[in-house]
Design a protein that fits this description.
InterPro entries: P-loop_NTPase (IPR027417). By secondary structure, the chain is α/β, with parallel strands linked by helices. Helix content is about 40%, strand content about 15%.
Length: about 260
């Protein structure tokens, strides 16, 4: 059954023309662990790779969980931004990361650590990183995952924190239905409605059938594979039906991103 779109989602996805990918920077941020941040980064990196024929940059700054780095075909660069002694941002490493992004026109995705959320937000804010990137001709997007169920409030708090620190940023909201649904559509939540002009678009991670699509998707992830690894290169232990389901699932996710970038 096709879900109807709210006015907020329609405006975000239709009024804003599809942006090009060159000179775009995508920060994926969420303070709530296990919210689906790395899944969003994983899907976004695959979209960038497909749309640019591999001419993109991907970074994994999560010191505790190098999930994105585990997908070998995505060519992710791991960077530990936290100084282990001070437990603060190592400014020199962050500077190197930003310099590398600015030195190329290729789009980039940065998967940030949930445990370092506040430190990274503070550094980006106090160092005017978004302004520096924009002055260099970059268009910056902040991708925020919002869960439903019990963790909805926590994930929305992260969005509030980001809005307070970066009120002029462009946001992409990932609606993660893995943990359940909300009685009130996210687009009708006052926080979202009040900040509709800051939202570039929405991506929905629909709850999958646990016995079929979800099982195949999780198996692919556990094996450190991408959609193309399985569908095109025949990697992993997947039959014809499994591959067919993953092909359809790839289209569901990446088509949403294609409408935004």
């Amino acid at each position: 059954m096709t879900k109807s779109k709210s006015n907020v989602e329609t405006v975000a996805n239709e009024v804003v023309e599809m942006a090009g990918l060159d000179n775009t920077v995508h920060f994926v941020m969420q303070s709530k662990g296990g919210a689906g941040k790395s899944i969003a980064s994983y899907l976004l990196a695959q979209h960038l790779k497909e749309q640019t024929q591999g001419d993109y940059l991907a970074f994994d700054t999560d010191p505790n969980n190098k999930t994105l780095t585990s997908y070998k075909s995505l060519n992710v660069t791991p960077i530990n931004l936290i100084n282990e002694r001070t437990e603060m941002i190592d400014q020199s490493k962050f500077d190197i990361l930003i310099e590398k992004i600015m030195s190329q026109e290729s789009p980039s995705v940065i998967d940030t650590g949930s445990g370092e959320f506040i430190n990274i937000v503070n550094y980006i804010n106090t160092s005017s990183i978004l302004e520096i990137l924009e002055e260099a001709g970059k268009t910056v997007y902040i991708h925020v995952i919002v869960n439903f169920g019990q963790s909805m409030k926590d994930t929305l708090i992260s969005f509030i924190t980001l809005l307070q620190n970066f009120p002029n940023a462009k946001y992409v909201i990932w609606k993660n239905e893995y943990y359940g649904y909300s009685e009130t559509p996210l687009e009708e939540v006052k926080l979202i409605k009040d900040n509709a002009n800051s939202i570039h678009g929405f991506v929905t991670l629909e709850k999958l059938n646990a016995d079929t699509h979800e099982k195949d998707f999780l198996s692919m992830i556990k094996q450190g594979l991408t959609f193309d690894d399985v569908i095109l290169d025949g990697k992993g232990d997947f039959g014809i039906i499994n591959k067919s389901r993953l092909k359809k699932l790839k289209a569901v996710y990446l088509d949403q991103l294609s409408k935004l970038f």
